[in-house]
Design brief:
- This protein is of the alpha+beta class.
- The protein folds into 2 domains: 111 residues, Aminopeptidase (3-Layer(aba) Sandwich), CATH 3.40.630.30; 93 residues, OB fold (Dihydrolipoamide Acetyltransferase, E2P) (Beta Barrel).
- The protein has 4 helices and 13 strands.
- It has a 5-stranded mixed barrel.
- β10 and β11 form a beta hairpin.
- It is globular, with a radius of gyration of 21 Å.
- The relative contact order is 0.11.
């Protein structure tokens, strides 16, 4: 009698997988109440069939599903920040299949599909002891936290697969008007009072605050809008990702366009 070994494989999710993926995602994220979550819930759209289906069509990411003996048991999205940097988010595995080695194999298979990727990043809630241990076990290192979720911080993890890889930081002294896609590190100082302004583009009311970002080469006014204002505190060392520099009334300023703020660990 021939005994077949269990098989774990991944393939890109299709639109008709959306209902199954949404159901597994909901049960997986809701099970986080067992590891620190205050209640059931997950990332935006985690339980929405429409969101899962939309992501299977997205041109900006790859939606991978994991199969265990041919059965869908989980999924995740891989966003190509660049040819060398992949951001993973929305990772989930069916709670009925936890502690079977599926997660580690899942990540290994995904990495194999991006042979040119040297940097991998992801984030997970600070209260989730299960994912913290898992990500550290497969080689991720926490370098800081993110605060884009209002209710709790997220651990920001990085995994470098090539020791020669270096992030392209731009020192403040090298910034000039019109530069985009910037990665700038510095210490936040002198946060102003939040003020309300009317957008000249859409007429909407928006909140804005100015602060100073300083590195070893100089300082610049960092302008943050709306929800990003609460994400930083004076004295914190941060990395601004996907920022842009712009001259405003003769003063060079740094802002963020579709980017994020990483608060570095002390």
């Amino acid at each position: 009698m021939k005994i077949m070994a269990d098989t774990i494989e991944i393939t890109l999710a299709q639109a008709d997988d959306a209902e199954t993926l949404a159901d597994i995602s909901k049960r997986s994220f809701d099970s986080d109440t067992e590891v620190g979550a205050l209640g059931p819930g997950g990332p935006p759209g985690y339980d929405s069939v429409e969101v899962h289906e939309k992501d299977t069509h997205s041109e900006h990411l790859d939606y991978w599903k994991v199969l265990y003996n041919g059965r869908i048991v989980g999924g995740t999205r891989a966003y190509k920040v660049s040819s060398e940097h992949i951001y993973i988010y929305g990772v989930f595995v069916d709670p009925d299949f936890h502690r079977m080695g599926i997660g580690a194999k899942f990540f290994s298979l995904i990495e194999n599909n991006y042979p040119h990727a040297k940097k991998w990043t992801l984030d997970t809630p600070v209260w989730n002891v299960r994912t913290k241990g898992f990500y550290e076990k497969i080689g991720f290192v926490q370098v800081g936290v993110l605060r884009w979720v209002p209710d709790f911080e997220l651990r920001y993890f990085v995994k470098i697969n090539d020791a020669s890889y270096l992030d392209e930081d731009t020192s403040i002294s090298k910034l000039s008007d019109g530069m985009k896609g910037l990665r700038v590190e510095g210490v936040v100082e002198n946060i102003s009072e939040v003020r309300e302004v009317t957008s000249s583009k859409d007429g909407e009311k928006k909140r804005v605050a100015n602060m100073t970002l300083r590195d070893d080469t100089g300082s610049i006014t960092l302008v943050l809008w709306n929800d990003m204002i609460r994400q930083v505190c004076e004295g914190e060392r941060v990395i601004i990702e996907r920022g842009y520099a712009k001259d405003y009334n003769g003063q060079l300023q740094l802002s963020i366009s579709n980017g994020q703020i990483i608060i570095l660990q002390h």
